């Protein structure tokens, strides 16, 4: 008997709260502006007649007309909904239901919460229907379900279309009010920020190199630099654990040799200095997730949850690195799996309106090339779709690394040569491609803006061409 009653239970609703809220608006029409921030559309009302009355009130407000029983009745009558709304007598009953609009926000919250519960029921029913399909795909059903629930929680179910003219005008207005500020997330590398105007929302940026070139170091430098400028950064490390990354950041920020930190060969004065640096890091919104075996589906879910928990603040996501992400399903073709993960990272960037910086490995061809180890787009490992999905593709190139492999016994690489680094912008969907010169201080795992002139060693036994065409639009 109890089960039968559960089956026929009425959907969650708050009819009295709906009456009192509408009555409060009749008492104080200005309160409509406040509650319209909580109740975004008439469908949040359970009773259709209350939906009609609410929409009539919104119509009057938008047109600048007063709200009372007669004006609302007039709008309803013009829309052939006065009878549906219970007529003028019902409108008078609503108006007299409450003495004032004192608790109107509270009523709005009750109505909204009941609406969310009803939508959860509808979403669950849809999930059940999708799961019962003979061709149902587990990941797709989970993804669709999570997306529906996430939209409800963050109240982001909305119409996404906008007139092109409005988008253009909004952009120009922002441009006019911005005072030499970057439009995107800053990296604090001068030439890179000048080229990109900061890492832009919805962009997927690929940072690729062979092992030991400094991918993680540069990504961490960018993360810290952005966090220092009050940006919220989420760093996914699929290779190193949190402690390893923390030690790297300390070494980089304090400019203390990383090997000495790892070995504990530091004095009391240095430890105190590091404590000061660690205190400075407390103000940075830099968060690390070192989960292993992360799928693209998991990563997107983590970012959604993170953004919701941090008051919608998320300015940059970094993934270290793309080829270590778990391939979805039972894909036997690794290239197909990597391509899917690359596509999902672009989806993440667009959905959450953030830049996503993903690190990637290059294949061995770059090392065996007789003309030198300058990376090319064709060197991206496992999948050509990485290049297709990315808005920006950049490579780290350090000429000294190649000289180390090819040097003669009597050849000594100068310190300035070891520091020489190039950030090759090989693809830039919205700008030119070029080379950006940096310095790499390996002892601190830290990249800096270029300050010295590349050294031509007097004993070089081969000449390499490390230049690239400048200002070449992709």
Features:
single chain, 474 residues, alpha/beta, DNAb Helicase, Chain A, Rossmann fold, ten-stranded mixed β-sheet, 10 strands, elongated, disordered C terminus
What would you note in describing this structure?
The protein is an alpha/beta fold and 474 residues long. Among the domains are: 2-111, DNAb Helicase, Chain A (Orthogonal Bundle), CATH 1.10.860.10; 183-391, P-loop containing nucleotide triphosphate hydrolases (Rossmann fold). The chain is built from 20 helices and 10 strands. The chain has helices spanning 2-7, 15-27, 31-35, 48-63, 69-78, 87-95, 104-132, 138-154, 164-177, 190-196, 215-228, 242-254, 258-263, 268-281, 296-309, 334-352, 365-368, 385-389, 399-406, 415-419, and strands at residues 204-209, 233-237, 286-289, 316-320, 356-361, 392-397, 420-428, 432-441, 446-449, 472-473. Strands 1, 2, 3, 4, 5, 6, 7, 8, 9 and 10 form a 10-stranded mixed sheet that branches. Helix 4 (48-63) crosses helix 5 (69-78), helix 5 (69-78) packs antiparallel against helix 6 and helix 15 (296-309) runs parallel beside helix 16 (334-352). The radius of gyration is 29 Å and the shape is elongated.
